[in-house]
Amino acid sequence: MNKKSIKFWIIWLLITIILIVVIIFILKKNKNLNVWLKINNTWSWDVQVTTESLVKNQQINKWYCFSIADSTEKEKCIKTMEDINKKDLELFTEATKSLDDGKCSNIQNTTDKEWCKTEVARIALFNEATKTLDLKLCEKITDLTSKETCVNIVKDWLVFNEAVAQKNQKKCTEIVNKDSQQKCIEQIKFWALLQDAIKKVDIKLCSKLSDSNYKQKCEEEINNIIIIQSAFLDWDLSKCTTIKEPFAKQKCEEEINNQKIIEVAREKKDKQECQKIESSEPRKVCERMVAEEIESGDLKMYIQQAKEKNDVSICKKITNQDWTLLCTTIVSKNYDDCDKITNESLKNECYSNKKQYISEFVSKIHSNVAWKAKEKNDKTLCDEYKKPFENKRCLELVNDIYYYNQALKTWDIKLCDNYTKGFEPFCKAFLTKDKKYCDQLEDENQKKSCINSVK
């Protein structure tokens, strides 16, 4: 080996030693370089890489942090990883709660970021499906557990709604969820009982409900109705203030105010007064009632003329069918036609006229046929009464007088069954002196009269 060759190798050896010394120095200065090199399985002289940047770039995980020998760097690595995980969890929670997948983009961990977007989409689809009760939307959910839960919830609610709409408690048993099944049955019971309680205005019926919430709601509804009825009866706005439920309270006040306006409008026969009513429907009712009041003034004039002249033909001048029926019924005394009148107010007026006429008619014919009918149920006694209604009432009176007297003679209560339908209780109560028969009468005046006859 010549001198030049020896010199070359000595120089190369020195350079190598210098390089090794430099590398060792660098490694001591940056203790994390070996971590970066090991993870990336490559060599690089980029000594600017830090533990924090490696964590953020997801090139190491929490478990690798434990492998760092230097305790300070190890704690720093773990702390950085925990901070990032905590922030990612917060972003994940916010995104799934607000259903904003834009927040998922700020998550550091790539896997968690994609999972966040998937969850937001799943929850949004689940919520929409259960809200709209759309089974087709449930089928679009890829997660099998969520899909099954969605389908069960939607099917249960569809059955629930159908059962409640049909008031069919048996159908409630088709609901899978036991709590929903019981709620379905309770709700059907509640609405049926509430309607009955409202119809009868009987708060005691609410006590039949086992569910405390439904029972309380029922009692509140009936109490509101009682207060509103009392407020309407007295036109007393102050009574509305005792209603706790805001909507019912407002409706109570509105109705009373509206009724006061309507009465003034009807009295003045002025539709302009109706404009003081804010709601459109009550305002239309007011205008219609004023129009009817104006019209009824003219129609009553025709009825009065027809009555005075005893001329049914005058009734034909009236174009309104119900008013025409009222007119012809009053003039002809054929009160069976009262049932043909559709307008409730006019029908009640017809019944009122009927009641007055019957009272006058019975008093008139009683003295004519009473003594003759005691011994014989003679239908010819009524031949002089040609009008159908008068003839029918006369026959009923003759029949009742005859059987009543026969019952008194024999004290045979069975004879009372021959009475005109609805009047048997009078006969039985008088013979037995028992007030219980009077309770069978629906008309309060008849009931009082029956009780007095027993006394």
What average pLDDT do the residues reach?
Answer: 79
First-last Cα distance? 156 Å
**Strand portion, in percent?**
under 5%
Given the helix and strand composition, which structural class is it? mainly alpha
How do the SSEs run, as a string of H and E? HHHHHHHHHHHHHHHHHH
The gyration radius over C-alpha positions equals 47 Å
| Fraction of helical residues | 55-70%
Q: How many E-type strands?
A: 0
Number of helices: 18
- Which regions are unreliable across 5 or more consecutive residues at pLDDT < 50? 27-51, 54-60
Shape: elongated
The major sheet is characterized as: none
Topology:
Blueprint: H1 3-29, H2 33-40, H3 51-56, H4 62-65, H5 71-98, H6 110-132, H7 135-139, H8 144-166, H9 169-172, H10 178-200, H11 212-234, H12 246-268, H13 280-309, H14 321-332, H15 344-373, H16 388-410, H17 424-432, H18 444-454
